[in-house]
Design brief:
361 residues, 7-stranded mixed sheet, 3-stranded antiparallel sheet
């Protein structure tokens, strides 16, 4: 069997060499082999179907968020996905998500489509380091998590609480650089803490220490090997950045669909939970983001922004209606905790702000 380079196949199929590498890494080109830091491909290999269609091969497991993350968008995927432009506009070949968080929208996009280039970022370094570890060191990460899970599940309640505190202390030591770690140890600890702490919270104190107490789960799944492998495959060609959302400006252009999920504007004084990092995201920051979104709109990017709806608690609060006056604003239903009283959990509206019109509209 004769083999040719990815560059040769790219020329033959009329696509980019980067796109060919993506197809190879996703096992979508039969016989493709990675040799000496380069892909070689059977000369007579068949070109896969258009990657921007929803017909992903059934043998590739869909990836899902690997962390529980406050404000995750799993329940709003149906509404958000109505804005995906990849099928309607073939010029959109890139995807960006500058507040990636748990990645519910990211993985929904990557399960359904295969953009040529993908950019994600967040200012939470622990979170971004975990994404990178899953992309680059998933086998070591899984081995570590399987060992931790086996030991933790064998403990009684008292031993679990003590073991949890020891892992939390180790995580904070690594977080501050007090002790050396492997490329995946801190990531493994973050996943462990997320799966065993109270309510799956990520919260830090003023010193930057993770300080959430242990939860009371009977049989938590700490290592989901199949999903971690699926996530690693989806992230192989993703650019992962720890930084402010404004750093995405150089990536985003008129070929890009970008989704912003910033820290929500609090609906009530007691709902102001801002300790994912030591940074705040106040009204000034919200307005700066709105101006940034308009700049990207002017560049021709396709954009969706999520945020809270102030009218849930004050029908006269037009903060976002004014800030995004040039965008389309849609109110959608979501279940959220709007204050510390669990009785206040229920259906409220949230905002989807966009320069796109959904298929239903």
């Amino acid at each position: 069997m004769a083999f040719v380079s990815a560059k040769d196949i790219a020329t033959k199929w009329g696509i980019s060499q980067r796109r060919v590498a993506t197809l190879c890494s996703e096992n979508r080109i039969e016989g493709a082999t990675f040799v000496a830091n380069a892909w070689i491909i059977p000369e007579n290999a068949l070109k896969p179907l258009d990657a921007r269609k929803k017909d992903n091969p059934k043998n590739i497991l869909d990836a899902k968020p690997f962390l529980k993350w406050a404000g995750g968008k799993g329940q709003l995927l149906k509404e958000i996905s109505a804005y995906y432009p990849f099928e309607k506009d073939k010029t959109i070949t890139k995807y960006a998500e500058p507040f990636v968080g748990g990645g519910a929208v990211l993985f929904d996009v990557l399960n359904k489509f295969s953009p040529d280039e993908v950019y994600i970022s967040d200012i939470n370094k622990d979170l971004i380091d975990t994404y990178i570890a899953i992309r680059d060191n998933v086998d070591g990460l899984i081995e570590e998590l399987e060992s931790v899970e086996k030991t933790y599940l064998s403990f009684d309640k008292v031993q679990r609480a003590d073991g949890y505190r020891q892992k939390r202390d180790r995580f904070n030591a690594l977080k501050h650089g007090y002790e050396p770690d492997s490329p995946f140890e801190k990531a493994a600890l973050l996943i462990f803490l997320n799966r065993t702490c109270f309510n799956g919270l990520y919260r830090v104190n003023k010193k930057g220490d993770f300080n959430v107490p242990v939860g009371s789960y009977k049989n938590p799944q700490i290592c989901n090997k199949e999903n971690l492998l699926a996530v690693s495959k989806k992230l192989k060609n993703v650019k992962i950045v720890c930084g402010d959302y404004k750093e995405s400006a150089d990536f985003i252009d008129d070929k890009t669909f970008v989704y912003f999920d910033p820290p929500y504007r609090p609906l009530t004084p007691t709902a102001n939970f801002t300790s994912y990092t030591e940074e705040l995201f106040d009204d000034k920051n919200q307005l700066e983001l709105a101006r940034f979104v308009q700049e990207l709109d002017n560049k021709g990017a396709k954009i969706v922004v999520s945020n809270s709806d102030p009218k849930n608690t004050n029908k006269d609060d037009d903060f976002f209606d004014k800030a995004y006056s040039k965008q389309n604003i849609k109110r959608v239903s979501a279940t959220r905790m709007i204050n510390r009283n669990s009785d206040a959990r229920g259906k409220i509206s949230e905002l989807l702000i966009s320069n796109l019109i959904t298929r239903k509209e």
